[in-house]
Amino acid sequence: MTGYGQKKDDVQRRLRRVEGQVRGLQRMVEEDAYCIDVLTQVSAATKALQAVALELLDAHLSTCVADAIGKGGATAQDKIAEASAAVARLVKS
């Protein structure tokens, strides 16, 4: 089971909302909306995706990584390194 398994419905709901935001952005560009208005909506969609990413990361840390640490050994170190790399990718974006 995935770390976000218990929150899967919430994650999917958030992603559908982002999908709607992106479709709205496409419509705004198609209709030649004012640049700043489009940029404002891009920012909102970006923040919504970041919120999904943080929820997924939290779930991963509290389940997958915590379980691996409990077991110890190389798997724990691998999971920690994997989580650190994911955080680094999120910070870069």
Overview of this protein structure:
The protein is mostly helical and 93 residues long. It has a single domain (8-92), classed as Methane Monooxygenase Hydroxylase, Chain G, domain 1 (Up-down Bundle). Helix content is 86%, strand content 0%. Helix 1 runs antiparallel to helix 2 and helix 2 runs antiparallel to helix 3 (73-92). The longest helix has 37 residues, at 35-71. The protein is elongated, with a radius of gyration of 17 Å. The mean pLDDT is 94.
Q: Are there runs of 5+ residues with pLDDT below 50, and where?
A: none
CATH H-level superfamily: Metal-sensitive repressor, helix protomer
The number of helical segments is 3
Give the averaged pLDDT, no decimals: 94
Give the termini separation.
28 Å
- Using the CA coordinates, give the radius of gyration: 17 Å
Helices and strands, in N-to-C order? HHH
